[in-house]
Specification:
The protein has 13 helices and no strands. Helix 3 packs parallel to helix 6, helix 6 runs parallel beside helix 11 and helix 7 packs across helix 11.
């Protein structure tokens, strides 16, 4: 686990006086990963231009993404993932955005249905929790470390939690890890996160193209059946 004193500092830096641990509150002070916001704006612009009737459903999902509730995913998300929870969430959202973008003009009804579905209930939290689980498992299988252990190493580096060290758009600089072995682990973490994000693209794309056919696969991915 990440040391308690380090977690306290990182939590104070992220949350300030707020105990709201939604995506917007936790990540609003941090610089987003490269091209993340640009991709969201592009998708919104494209929907507005080509399928304006779907825009209310997209806006609903985008608002829901801001309000993603980390407390439904983990009892202490900051202790487990630290600042990494923000780029992880953004890579996950990037996958959703690209999945939407690939099917904007193919089926308006299916697109609207999928956007409404993703924005409903706790579907988004379940989806993200499944994404995190797969990244975490892949990381542990390849390195023998948990992500919280990687953070523990990072916290030992002087200046790790200073504001100026967390504003870069690159996850590597975000952690400021320069030792060879840890650098290798960070490469593994980044690659696994991006690879799983590509899987999110395919899941959302398939869900829009054939919602009834792929809804079962989607629910299996998020563990819906197992928890019913």
């Amino acid at each position: 686990m990440v040391p308690k004193d380090s977690t306290g500092k990182i939590e104070d830096l992220i949350l300030g006086q707020s105990k709201d641990i939604t995506y917007y509150t936790v990540c609003k002070k941090l610089e987003p990963i490269e091209n993340y916001e640009k991709e969201l704006k592009y998708v919104r612009k494209k929907v507005k231009e080509f399928v304006p009737e779907v825009l209310p459903s997209l806006e609903k999902l985008l608002d829901r993404m801001k309000k993603l509730d980390y407390s439904l995913i983990s009892e202490d998300i900051i202790r487990e993932y630290g600042h990494l929870i923000c780029p992880l969430t953004q890579m996950f959202y990037d996958g959703i955005s690209k999945g939407i973008d690939s099917n904007i003009q193919k089926s308006i009804d299916n697109l609207k249905t999928t956007l409404e579905y993703l924005a409903s209930g706790d579907i988004l939290e379940r989806f993200f929790k499944a994404y995190l689980k797969r990244v975490e498992e892949g990381f542990h299988n390849e390195t023998g470390y948990t992500i919280s252990k990687l953070l523990e190493i990072g916290y030992k580096i002087p200046g790790f939690i200073r504001n100026k060290d967390i504003r870069d758009r690159n996850v590597r600089y975000l952690l400021n890890i320069k030792i060879k072995d840890e650098d290798k682990y960070l490469d593994t973490f980044t690659n696994l996160s991006m690879k799983e994000s590509e899987r999110i693209v395919d899941i959302v794309k398939n869900l829009i193209e054939h919602p009834e056919q792929y809804k079962k696969d989607f629910e299996e991915y998020i563990g819906y059946k197992a928890e019913k």
